[in-house]
Design the sequence.
């Protein structure tokens, strides 16, 4: 029976960051097991046949206000400055998302000039709802009913197979609005893409003599063949407990990739299709993300579905209650640390996963 100090399940950000910290800072032997055939989780990228770097599980845009997170990841990657832009396609025209002054002027044929005028516009159209019980309340409370119906209602249903009023406020409550003409999707202080891609970043992170990686393997198939002192579990929490309280539902995505003999296929990296008649949610042109200068291009269309890799926890009150029961079981596991999106049934951005994992590492070594 092979002996390790720590057994880690899942080679996404949570598992890989924890593996690197334990191996490099504590000089302990780590076995990292991943059920997929590659490291990097949903951030996995690779070069397709024409040389374009493709995000196989949808666009992963690094943005953060945390200098600590940036400095940590800079140990494993150089960066290229990149500010993401998104357009919504509605009635054969394009509108900046998040909604800003340009969006309002274009859709209502207005000529708002100042932040104050935009703020006054939102004040006039927003529908004050209290308490905020669901995502519809959260959005309508910001932008009013008409903009909600145009940009959010159908898109959210396609994404989740639930209308916003069926979803927790946290699902759509993160959506900002702008009073100015800023068309960047994010406003974080640090916005970059890893110069050589995410997979390379992960390869460097895991390149340590104390880390052994096994791919294409379900941890349950080997757990009886090894011994270890502690487990870090980053997979679905319901799977860990053999679904004793039922399955926690997730939304997955089916991707359709297309090569085009064009310099560019669309106006920007991401276009959201907000109308019900279009079955996919968005089209991503990957060359924008990598900044490559190549004569052809590749796009991906995204079709949300229930089957497939778990992407997004479906945060309804019922599902939260199921998770709480699993969480109570997790507390009883004295030598297991549950970490990451799937294990905590939360939607984290990449920087949040890294920050959360670094924090859990510190708590772990301090015996808390």
Sequence:
């Amino acid at each position: 029976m092979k002996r390790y100090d720590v057994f880690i399940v899942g080679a996404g950000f949570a598992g890989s960051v924890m593996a690197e910290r334990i191996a490099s800072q504590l000089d302990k032997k780590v076995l990292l097991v991943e059920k997929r055939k590659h490291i990097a989780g949903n951030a996995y990228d690779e070069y397709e046949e024409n040389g374009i770097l493709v995000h196989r599980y949808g666009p992963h845009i690094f943005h953060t206000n945390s200098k600590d997170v940036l400095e940590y990841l800079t140990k494993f990657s150089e960066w290229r400055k990149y500010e993401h832009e998104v357009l919504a396609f509605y009635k054969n025209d394009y509108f900046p998302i998040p909604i800003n002054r340009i969006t309002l002027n274009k859709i209502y044929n207005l000529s708002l000039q100042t932040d104050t005028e935009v703020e006054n516009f939102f004040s006039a159209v927003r529908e004050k709802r209290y308490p905020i019980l669901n995502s519809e309340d959260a959005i309508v409370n910001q932008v009013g009913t008409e903009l909600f119906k145009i940009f959010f209602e159908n898109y959210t249903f396609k994404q989740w197979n639930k209308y916003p009023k069926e979803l927790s406020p946290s699902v759509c409550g993160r959506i900002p609005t702008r009073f100015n003409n800023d068309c960047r999707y994010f406003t974080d202080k640090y916005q970059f893409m890893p110069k050589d891609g995410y997979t390379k970043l992960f390869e460097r992170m895991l390149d340590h003599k104390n880390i052994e990686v096994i791919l294409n393997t379900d941890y349950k198939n080997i757990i009886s063949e090894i011994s270890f002192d502690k487990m870090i579990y980053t997979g679905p929490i319901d799977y860990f407990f053999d679904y004793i309280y039922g399955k926690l539902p997730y939304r997955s995505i089916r991707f359709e990739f297309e090569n085009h003999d064009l310099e560019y296929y669309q106006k920007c990296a991401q276009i959201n299709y907000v109308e019900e008649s279009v079955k996919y949610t968005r089209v991503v042109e990957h060359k924008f993300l990598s900044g490559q200068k190549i004569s052809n291009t590749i796009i991906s269309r995204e079709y949300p579905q229930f089957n497939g890799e778990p992407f997004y926890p479906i945060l309804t009150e019922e599902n939260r209650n199921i998770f709480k029961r699993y969480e109570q079981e997790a507390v009883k596991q004295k030598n297991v640390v549950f970490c990451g999106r799937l294990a905590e049934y939360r939607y984290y951005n990449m920087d949040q996963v890294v920050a959360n994992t670094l924090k859990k590492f510190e708590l772990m070594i301090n015996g808390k």
